[in-house]
């Protein structure tokens, strides 16, 4: 009996290692990941509304129909970006993801405490190149440091009632993701 325990344990440990490696590597090998699906409907550094989910499907799977969504595929190779999102009456959030879908920052209208969520998005080199300015505090300028040059900014706004859907969509179309000046 004891001669079967050691090989069984070794098999279980090996299986766990293979499973963990596959789970960790899969996002980097997937051809139709979120970035690729969104690249079919959006260009770099521009905010594009995502169509509501329908019977034919959705650009992103498991999309909540109670939200209006927009996306900006960013590319920081040319320089930092200024992300400006007007808030809505109910709830607005801005989430940042790497090219492979790993989240690294999120903020909502309650946290921002303003009628417009305004962020500077840059990579580590661009942030290090910023001049030190004692007069500009963290409350005046919210800087988000991206771990990669490419990624996704996902903007979502809650629509409490169907009658307000067009109004929220119009407000979301005012969002922009443009090079910082």
From TrEMBL:
Keyword annotations: Membrane, Transmembrane, Transmembrane helix
Stretches that traverse the bilayer: 6-29
Keyword Membrane annotated: yes
Protein name: Membrane protein
Domain of life: Bacteria
Location of the DUF1254 domain: 53-172
One Pfam family per UniProt: DUF1254
Presence of the UniProt keyword Membrane in the record: yes
């Amino acid at each position: 009996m004891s001669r079967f325990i050691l090989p069984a344990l070794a098999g279980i440990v090996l299986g766990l290692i293979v499973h963990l490696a596959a789970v960790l590597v899969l996002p980097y090998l997937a051809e139709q990941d979120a970035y690729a699906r969104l690249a079919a409907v959006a260009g770099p550094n521009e905010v594009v509304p995502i169509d509501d989910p329908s019977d034919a499907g959705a650009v992103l799977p498991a999309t909540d129909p109670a939200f209006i969504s927009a996306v900006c595929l960013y590319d920081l190779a040319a320089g930092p970006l200024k992300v400006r999102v007007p808030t809505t009456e109910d709830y607005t959030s801005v989430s940042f993801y790497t090219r492979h879908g790993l989240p690294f920052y999120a903020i909502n209208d309650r946290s921002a405490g303003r009628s417009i969520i305004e962020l500077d998005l840059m990579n580590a080199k661009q942030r290090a190149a910023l001049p030190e300015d004692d007069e500009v505090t963290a409350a005046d300028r919210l800087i988000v440091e991206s771990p990669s040059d490419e990624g996704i900014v996902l903007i979502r706004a809650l629509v409490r009632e169907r009658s307000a859907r067009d109004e929220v969509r119009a407000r979301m179309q005012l969002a922009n993701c443009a090079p910082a000046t």
